[in-house]
Design a protein that fits this description.
Layout: H1 16-21, E1 31-36, H2 42-55, E2 60-64, H3 69-78, E3 86-90, H4 113-127, E4 131-135, H5 137-144, H6 147-163, E5 167-172, H7 181-186, E6 189-196, E7 204-212, E8 222-227, E9 230-234, H8 256-261, E10 271-277, H9 282-295, E11 300-304, H10 309-318, H11 324-329, E12 332-336, H12 344-356, E13 362-366, H13 368-372, H14 378-394, E14 398-406, E15 413-414, E16 424-433, E17 436-446, E18 455-461, E19 464-470, E20 474-475, E21 483-484
Parallel strand pairs: 1-5, 1-6, 2-3, 2-4, 4-5, 10-14, 10-16, 11-12, 11-13, 13-14
Antiparallel strand pairs: 6-7, 7-8, 8-9, 14-15, 16-17, 17-18, 18-19, 20-21
């Protein structure tokens, strides 16, 4: 008889994000190693794994050589869990233990390694569990006192569990020497948890799958957080995993002159980078484009790094672009992001959720300067932005990116150059003329259409940016100090701005 070609049903880890990383979960009846330094979430992951099994009527056994029953139940309560469906078997000493009571507690230092292992096997034969957690291998390693004896006992456990059709998680604290390569070679799969502490902000946790036999998985590092309810894993965004959609026709920015400057508007599936110094009008331009889409009934998401949400709402309303009705209708998703507390992986998952769950067709990130602070260095920002923009492009989303520049006029610079990743780059600049500070906009490049090569003055008034005629009779506008040959009527007349900030 030919073997059944269908793959076995995977065992869920109890963590949606980790199941995605593992391409569905764990292969059943295998032994897995979960390693990490103390505090990385091994116990929380293991408890969540057993609780997921309880929901599918699996018998779960948690064998602990380090923590007590009281401690484990306290961990569970912190996550809002009840462990009634899980059998806890602790092998740690308890004061007041008497010989006439049933002996279920053993001190690892008072018995030989072989006896400890036999006790574990006896408990498994008694309960016949399908899911087992052994916490932790550090105690067995101390009992073994030699690598050879330790390896033999682990191999014996592996063989025993395989004959009992158990899916087993071995938890291991990384010692001073780092990962235990002997365990790596024995285990069917290895998941490594880690955490780093930055100079400011909360610690950053991430995991990676070291190996996983028989099954493909998503490699690389994946950020995760320990939250009430268990681990929240944010799989690394891979754009090639998502099919590409047709872009469609260009959409209007809400300003016909700005549409003409861009060569017809904003093309779905492309990214537009708005650059310029502080206060020049980048956020106002992005909000204007977003409001135009919202008024057409499209959904949008705005990720705000730089300023407070009430400030943005007040300023936009003062410019005739009130966002509150769109928030109340559910068309607009507005999120204030703290880069000191949110990892890059979590932000990427938030963007993905905005597209796939909220249904946003316009996504704005304000600004990339603050987003850079969440990254280890500039190199990682460029790599992740490339993957994110590729994903958004394949989903047919209009992406609006804001990048602040240092300086006001003359030679102004940015923290990072992302112009080559963007399909369209619009530059907003200050310039001085007739004793006034004025603003100009120009499109440096666009990959989708022939755009105007002119430089236009603009002012911020009702409904956002109001563009004037091309500054044909000026030279040196981009340098900030232009020379003028012509008539003064080339410039726009000054307007009275509404109360509040101009940009």
């Amino acid at each position: 008889m030919a073997p059944d070609p269908s793959p076995p049903v995977k065992v869920s880890t109890g963590i949606d994000g980790l199941d995605l990383v593992l391409n569905g979960g764990l292969t059943p009846h295998r032994m897995y190693l979960i390693e990490g330094t103390p505090g990385t979430g091994k116990t929380t992951l293991a408890l969540g794994f057993l609780l997921a099994g309880v929901e599918t009527n699996e018998v779960g056994l948690y064998i602990t050589l380090a923590e007590t029953d009281v401690e484990l139940r306290a961990v569970a309560r912190a996550h809002g869990w009840a462990l009634d469906g899980i059998e806890l078997f602790e092998m740690v000493p308890a004061d007041g233990f008497s010989n006439d009571q049933e002996q279920t507690l053993l001190h690892p230092s008072e018995v030989e390694l072989g006896e400890t292992v036999r006790t574990i096997m006896a408990k498994v034969d008694e309960l016949r569990p399908t899911l087992v957690v052994l916490d932790s291998l550090s105690e067995l390693r101390l009992l073994a006192q030699s690598p050879i004896r330790y390896r033999r006992q682990i191999l014996a456990l592996k063989h025993f569990f395989s004959t009992r059709s158990c899916t087993v998680l071995f938890l291991d604290d990384k010692g001073a020497d780092g990962s235990d390569l002997q365990l790596h070679s024995i285990a069917h799969g290895v998941i490594s948890l880690g955490q780093t502490l930055a100079s400011f902000g909360g610690q950053r946790r991430r995991l990676h799958v070291v190996k996983m036999r028989e099954a493909p998985f998503r490699g690389g590092y994946h950020d995760f957080e320990i939250e009430r309810g268990g681990l929240q894993v944010f799989p690394r965004l891979v754009a090639s995993d998502h099919p590409a959609l047709d872009g469609g026709e260009p959409i209007s920015t809400g300003s016909p002159p700005l549409d003409a400057l861009l060569g017809g508007g904003l093309v779905p599936g492309t990214s537009t980078l708005l650059t310029g110094p502080a206060g020049v009008g980048k956020t106002t331009a992005a909000v204007q484009c977003m409001v135009a889409a919202l008024e057409r009934g499209q959904k949008a998401s705005y990720f705000l790094f730089d300023e407070r949400m009430p400030t943005l709402l007040t300023r936009s309303a003062a410019l005739g672009m009130d966002l509150r009705p769109h928030l109340e209708s559910g068309l607009l998703e507005l999120r204030a992001i703290d880069p000191a507390e949110m990892s890059p992986g979590e932000f990427a998952c938030a963007v993905q959720s905005a597209v796939e769950r909220h249904g946003s067709t316009v996504v704005a990130i304000d600004s990339l300067n603050a987003y850079l602070q969440a990254m280890p260095n500039e190199k990682f920002l460029v790599l992740q932005m490339h993957e994110m923009l590729t994903y958004l492009g394949q989903k047919g989303v209009v992406s609006l990116l804001i990048l602040g520049l240092h300086g006001v006029t003359g030679d102004i610079r940015s923290d990072v150059d992302l112009s080559y990743l963007s399909d369209t780059v619009a530059q907003l600049r200050y310039f001085e003329a007739e004793g006034e500070v004025r603003q100009a906009i120009s499109v440096i490049k666009t990959r989708t259409a022939r755009h105007e090569r002119t430089i236009r003055e603009f002012q911020i008034g009702d409904r956002g940016l109001q563009l004037g005629e091309p500054l044909n009779q000026f030279q040196g506008v981009l340098a900030g100090v232009p020379t003028f040959s012509g008539e003064a009527k080339t410039l726009m007349s000054s307007q009275t701005h509404p109360d509040g900030p101009r940009a």
